[in-house]
């Protein structure tokens, strides 16, 4: 452990250059900036931050302010995943991890590039990974909660909120502890990096082990976790659809047995049971709609990024990593838009806000004139 800590504190050896008048450290940084698209990558990440932060804040206000009472608990689960997504986007704004492939290292090009040392960069990158894992976990918990609600729809008193909260907390703690252990044993200091010929001479680096059982085990578990999330969402969706179909037939048969008159049958089917089933079915399809965005723009790019990390010598590995990372950085805003579009209360609230802003701009001059030129007799 002492050697590991000492390795972090050792300064990287910087070769001298033939350019006089330049500090060696600065010249190394200037002439080892990898490729021309470094600047493009960083500017895209900056633009992403400028765009997605207002969208996220607006969506948070909509969810907190305009959620109807009937969706209060469901909105908490949706808000849970959304907040993790928001934190991940904020961290991407400050980090800008740039792959230094074929070395299993990254360079921090964001606002955190000049803050802290190598340990600090590892901690920030680890918390970014935790946020990504928690986003996938939050999505699974949302579907599980919806299945629980439908299962106990006949007797909602059996549902205990504290059990739901305890389950969520235990799940997040379990993921955090497991990920922390795996990440700790997968790191290596730049001074102790085994493949010195691949190690770039640059500042702001942090590295992972380029080979070994720890790397393989960590990557495999990470992929298994993401795939398990997809499988869980699929299985929970099938179970929900199956229960809805099964309960729909049972409810209608009970109505036919109890109420022979066609009028009462129509009343009961239209007003009581079918309305409840339609509501569950509508919420399920809403969950499926807002899950498509995290799957397509979250899970798939995340798996591709993991593949480039496992084999950094892939052709165009750095370019593929950066392209997928940009998609990951933008998928939160797409998720926010999908959340507003999919849920009618949020959609209506957004429409009203936009309409009020438009009307305010149109009537601002008239309203100001009326306030300034009020007749004295009306005061």
From TrEMBL:
Q: Which Pfam families match?
A: 7TM_GPCR_Srh
Q: Where are the transmembrane segments?
A: 44-64, 76-99, 119-144, 165-185, 219-241, 283-308, 320-343
Q: Which residues form the signal peptide?
A: none
Highest taxon listed in the record's lineage: Eukaryota
Ordered alphabetically, the record's keywords are: Membrane, Transmembrane, Transmembrane helix
The cross-references to Gene3D superfamilies, in alphabetical order and at most eight, read: Rhodopsin 7-helix transmembrane proteins
Instruction: Fetch the PANTHER family from UniProt.
Output: SERPENTINE RECEPTOR, CLASS H-RELATED (PTHR46891)
Which named protein is this? G_PROTEIN_RECEP_F1_2 domain-containing protein
**Origin organism of this chain?**
Steinernema glaseri
């Amino acid at each position: 452990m002492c050697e590991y800590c000492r390795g972090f504190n050792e300064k990287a050896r910087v070769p001298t250059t033939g350019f006089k008048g330049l500090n060696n450290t600065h010249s190394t940084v200037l002439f080892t900036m990898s490729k021309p698209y470094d600047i493009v990558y960083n500017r895209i990440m900056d633009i992403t931050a400028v765009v997605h932060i207002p969208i996220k804040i607006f969506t948070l206000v909509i969810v907190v302010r305009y959620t109807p009472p009937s969706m209060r608990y469901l909105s908490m689960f949706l808000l849970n995943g959304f907040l993790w997504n928001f934190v991940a986007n904020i961290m991407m704004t400050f980090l800008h991890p740039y792959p230094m492939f074929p070395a299993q290292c990254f360079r921090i090009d964001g606002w955190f590039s000049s803050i802290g040392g190598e340990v600090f960069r590892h901690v920030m990158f680890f918390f970014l990974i935790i946020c990504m894992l928690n986003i996938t976990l939050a999505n699974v918990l949302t579907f599980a909660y919806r299945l629980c609600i439908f299962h106990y729809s006949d007797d909602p008193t059996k549902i205990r909120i504290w059990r739901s909260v305890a389950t969520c907390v235990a799940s997040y703690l379990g993921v955090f502890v497991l990920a922390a252990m795996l990440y700790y044993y997968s790191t290596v200091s730049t001074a102790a990096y085994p493949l010195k010929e691949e190690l770039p001479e640059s500042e702001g680096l942090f590295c992972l082990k380029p080979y070994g059982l720890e790397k393989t085990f960590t990557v495999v578990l990470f992929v298994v976790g993401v795939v398990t999330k997809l499988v869980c969402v699929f299985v929970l969706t099938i179970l929900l659809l199956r229960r809805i179909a099964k309960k729909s037939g049972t409810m209608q048969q009970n109505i036919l047995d109890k109420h022979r008159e066609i009028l009462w049958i129509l009343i009961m089917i239209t007003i009581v049971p079918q309305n409840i089933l339609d509501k569950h079915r509508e919420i399920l399809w809403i969950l499926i709609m807002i899950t498509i965005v995290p799957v397509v723009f979250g899970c798939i790019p995340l798996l591709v990024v993991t593949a480039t990390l496992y084999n950094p010598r892939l052709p165009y590995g750095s370019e593929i990593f950066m392209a997928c990372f940009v998609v990951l950085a933008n998928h939160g805003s797409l998720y926010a838009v999908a959340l507003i579009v999919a849920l009618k209360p949020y959609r209506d609230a957004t429409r009203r806000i936009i309409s009020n802003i438009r009307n305010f701009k149109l009537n601002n001059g008239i309203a100001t004139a009326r306030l300034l030129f009020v007749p004295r007799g009306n005061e």
